[in-house]
């Protein structure tokens, strides 16, 4: 049976059939998935029960896995999942219990409800992200995606000219500050230091341009901060209009794969103090960086 892809949105999002991603893939299957990603930017694989090991194995077909930031910033005893390459996108603590309202990890994770691109707070952001649904809540908890290619195409020529060479500054601290969270620990200062990315990116295969937006953006190089943040907010409002977005309603054993270079996403609210939502994410290291970085200052 050959791989088929059914569009779920006029411009992006495809549902894949004819493949079992728990098994080793052929070179032809890998190429078909990559071609689908180039075309749709987000792919949905239904009815794919996976172990963590199988998800990691499928993900490695597309590049090297990156270690998650939260695993690097936490102690092993605080992690529910063993691998630092498997991001725990859940509301469960290390013992498997629901996190309380004032739990620090819960408050940090609320930042996932802001529009963002995974790992844009690193000098080399994530390429693909792959999210597998193990337990889904009874109500809410959808993930919304926004097509940054279509959003760029819809800009007027004057705005395209203005943003062509702009460089933005990203940090996990910028997005979490919007929610009032700033408890990272003294040992993690280097992990929240701002990095730079071009605001306009060109896809290496298709040549199509897209915006590279994220809640992690706190400034534009050479601009006053208030002006930069107001402009980024305007661009984000433009890029997340309903015509550019699609909401994925999770089913158990869904795997959704997206390209962080050409999309943004956000989690939607659910009753996380009552219902379990257990999703697990792997991310592929991207290529880059897209802009020259500031030198890292030596510790005094």
Tell me the name of the CATH homologous superfamily. Clavaminate synthase-like
* Residue windows where pLDDT falls under 50 for at least 5 positions: none
Strand order of the largest sheet: 1-2-3-13-5-15-4
Distance between the termini: 61 Å
Return the structural class: alpha+beta
Tally of alpha and pi helices: 8
Average pLDDT across residues? 93
Strand composition percent: 15-25%
Looking at the structure, what is the overall shape? globular
Radius of gyration: 19 Å
Give a quick precis of the structure:
The chain has a single domain (4-285), classed as Clavaminate synthase-like (Double-stranded beta-helix, 4-Layer Sandwich), CATH 3.60.130.10. It is built from eight helices and 15 strands. It has helices at 27-40, 52-59, 69-72, 104-109, 148-153, 157-163, 172-177, 225-239, and strands at residues 4-7, 14-17, 42-45, 87-90, 126-135, 143-147, 167-170, 195-198, 200-202, 209-211, 217-220, 245-248, 255-259, 263-267, 278-285.
Describe this structure in words.
By secondary structure, the protein is an alpha+beta fold. The chain has a single domain (about 5-285), classed as Clavaminate synthase-like (Double-stranded beta-helix). Helices cover about 20% and strands about 25% of the residues. It contains eight helices and 15 strands. The protein has helices spanning about 25-40, 50-60, 70, 105-110, 150-155, 155-165, 170-175, 225-240, and strands at about 5, 15, 40-45, 85-90, 125-135, 145, 165-170, 195-200, 200, 210, 215-220, 245-250, 255-260, 265, 280-285. Strands 1-2-3-13-5-15-4 form a seven-stranded mixed sheet, covered by helices on one side. Strands 12-6-14 form a three-stranded antiparallel sheet. The longest helix has 15 residues, at about 225-240. It is globular. The termini are far apart. The mean pLDDT is about 95.
């Amino acid at each position: 049976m050959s791989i088929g892809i059914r569009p779920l949105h006029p411009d992006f999002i495809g549902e894949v059939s004819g493949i079992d991603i728990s098994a080793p893939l052929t070179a032809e299957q890998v190429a078909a998935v990559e071609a689908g990603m180039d075309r749709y930017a987000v792919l949905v694989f239904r009815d794919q029960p996976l172990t963590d090991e199988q998800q990691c194995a499928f993900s490695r077909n597309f590049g090297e896995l990156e270690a998650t930031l939260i695993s690097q910033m936490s102690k092993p005893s605080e992690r529910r999942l063993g691998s630092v390459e498997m991001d725990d996108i859940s509301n469960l603590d290390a013992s498997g219990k629901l996190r309380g309202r004032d739990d620090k990890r819960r408050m940090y994770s609320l930042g996932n409800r802001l529009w963002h691109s995974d790992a844009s707070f690193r000098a080399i952001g994530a390429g693909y992200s792959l999210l597998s649904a193990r337990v889904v809540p009874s109500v809410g908890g959808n993930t919304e995606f926004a097509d940054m290619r279509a959003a760029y195409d819809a800009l007027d020529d004057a705005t395209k000219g203005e943003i062509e060479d702009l460089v933005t500054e990203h940090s996990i601290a910028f997005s979490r500050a919007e929610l009032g969270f700033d408890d990272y620990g003294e040992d993690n200062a280097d992990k929240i230091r701002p990095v730079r990315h071009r605001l306009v990116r060109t896809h290496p295969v298709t040549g199509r341009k897209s915006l590279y937006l994220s809640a992690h953006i706190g400034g534009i190089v050479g601009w006053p901060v208030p002006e930069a943040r107001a402009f980024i907010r305007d661009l984000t409002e433009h890029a997340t209009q309903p015509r550019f977005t699609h909401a994925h309603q999770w089913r158990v054993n869904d795997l959704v794969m997206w390209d962080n270079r050409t999309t943004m996403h956000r989690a939607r609210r659910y009753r996380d103090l009552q219902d379990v939502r257990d999703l697990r994410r792997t991310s592929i290291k991207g290529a880059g960086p897209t802009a020259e970085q500031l030198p890292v200052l030596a510790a005094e």
